[in-house]
Specification:
This protein has 353 residues and is of the alpha/beta class. The chain contains 9 helices and 8 strands.
């Protein structure tokens, strides 16, 4: 606003509800005209009018799109808006962070061709290519109930695995009641709780299973495994989602168990400052450019412009982005990926083709 119209008096709201009515009325009394600059719907404009403050808003400010100083100045002054020059930039779809522990779960579910009802969180990105693992996402806490309904409604000939995913924070918020229903009605679903020890998508807030309050004070830790056992779930396992074989085995065992099964995939969010292992490197002479590792959708992995096999780029790992999660190392069929300084022909590999 200061860039768009520096001569104007500005009342900036740090929090839009509840509104500071007295301060707003005092501000309005000191200026000749009030214009509400807000994106999308006229929420603040409506509230100011309800307070009896005459104001302009959406008759000037566009309802659609994102505002910038040029758009705001043109709206307030009537000046013509400078034409926008289209930029020929490559597409950059949103992806899970490098080292995200959810990636291992989605890789396994994709390979299993599972039906995966999802939920609200960072892990909703598992619906996008190349992981393409999440099938539906309705509302917060709906993953479990969706899985129950889909399992009971689908054709008996459809034998695809039914595996719901939900985050630890969302499970505590609104997923527990659905799991109780699954136990009560003996519904054959498998639930993976993606326990990254935080509420990552909204800024890393704590919740009852982290052991800290929102004020940072120590609190009792809600043990998700014991909670599920107390509900009556017959099969509950805790796994490291950065171990592909362990994760796959636990999910397959859960699917064989009658009634609901729960796998707690526990690994801290990659954005936590202390979550970083030794970076991985690619032995170019061993890489066959199969590009299997690219299917992880990890931002640290890319094609090397200098190295290619039969016209296909070999893998390259950005050491500044790599968090050392080792998923690419485990899946490389030629053992061409290893930790920096390790034996390039050693390590743990699943050798997926």
């Amino acid at each position: 606003m200061k860039e768009a119209y520096p001569e104007a008096s500005v009342f900036k709201l740090g929090m839009t509800w509840p509104l500071p009515e007295r301060k707003l009325m005092s501000f309005a009394s000191e200026v000749k005209r009030v214009v509400v600059v807000e994106e999308l719907d006229p929420f603040l404009e409506t509230e100011l009018r309800a307070m009896g403050i005459p104001c302009a808003g959406k008759e000037l400010i566009p309802r659609e799109g994102e505002l910038d100083p040029g758009i705001v100045r043109a709206a307030l002054t009537g000046e013509p808006l400078a034409p926008r020059v289209p930029l020929d930039l490559p597409a950059r779809p949103p992806v899970l962070c490098p080292g995200c522990p959810h990636r291992g779960v989605f890789w396994v579910l994709n390979r299993m061709r599972a039906i995966v009802p999802g939920d609200i969180g960072c892990y909703t990105l598992g619906a996008l290519p190349p992981l393409s693992s999440l099938d539906i996402c309705i509302s917060m806490g709906a993953a479990v109930g969706s899985a129950i309904g889909m399992e009971r409604a689908r054709s008996p000939e459809d034998d695809r695995p039914m595996v719901a995913v939900i985050g630890d924070s969302t499970f505590v918020h609104s997923g527990i009641s659905g799991l109780i229903d699954a136990v009560y009605n003996s519904t054959n679903i498998t639930l993976v709780i993606l326990d990254n020890k935080t509420t990552a998508m909204t800024g890393g807030q704590d919740h009852p299973a982290t052991g800290r309050t929102l004020m940072g004070q120590s609190a009792p830790v809600l043990d998700l495994v014991r909670l599920c056992e107390a509900i009556g779930v017959g099969y509950v396992r805790r796994v490291d989602p950065l171990n592909l074989e362990e994760t796959r085995t636990a999910i397959e065992e859960g699917l064989k168990h009658p009634g609901p099964a729960v796998i707690v995939a526990e690994s801290p969010c990659a954005l936590q400052a202390d979550v970083r292992d030794e970076v991985l490197v690619v032995e170019t002479e061993d890489c066959t450019a199969c590009q299997l590792c690219f299917r992880l959708g990890c931002p640290a992995l890319s094609g090397s412009a200098e190295d290619a096999r039969n016209g296909r780029a070999c893998a390259s790992i950005d050491p500044l982005l790599c968090r050392g999660c080792s998923l690419c190392e485990q899946m490389c069929p030629k053992h061409a990926i290893h930790r920096a300084g390790d034996d390039p022909h050693g390590g743990n590999h699943s050798g997926e083709e």
